[in-house]
Amino acid sequence: MAPLPETDTRISQADALKYWNSIPATVNGMLGGLPQISRIDLRGSLNFIEKLRRLDPAPTVPEPLIRGVDCGAGIGRVTGGVLSKVCRVVDIVEPVEKFAREVRGAELLGQGKIGEAYVVGLQDWVPVEKYGLLWNQWCLGHLTDEELVQYLGRCMKAVTDGGWIVVKENMSTDPEGKDIFDELDSSVTRTDEKFRRLFEKAGLRIVKTEVQTGFPKKLFPVRFYALRPGT
Q: Structure pTM?
């Protein structure tokens, strides 16, 4: 039997879009039938941002942040539950049009919280604004390793001085320490080691990392990384 190709080369963004277009635009759909974890997830993210604030005794970014971006926003669950609470304006990047419509139609839009909506995949998104917070959650598995490095390089140029690029992603539990490919949605679950290598390759340094607590044991571990340009 021929060896399998590198895990990330099996990613098909066309297959991923086909999958996500088949999913209802609901919290239940976004969370794979586990809507009960949403509150825990959002609270964990807000707590993580607060910890980042405390790391900077003389912060160079305003509070609230002037502009943030929810990358892979889905229907805006994190946009409304986290970013709108810490940013004056939030842009979204979301390749699935029906999900982006949900964000545009949300109450936050009427409050002036939603800025630009970019209906495009992260592999093709080129930021034109500067952001105090670029949030990436449960979406980077749809990028190949090389696409992820290039994408993070673009994010690095878009983050304000003192701002953060946050990655919140599942961690591989493969016993041999390998990434795991999911044929269902054509995505890769990476190891902590792989993420760290790719961050370094992109020119980023980790300023804080921790594991999300409170999720059911049957799920993959979920880890936060707060990143800034390397020095």
A: 0.95
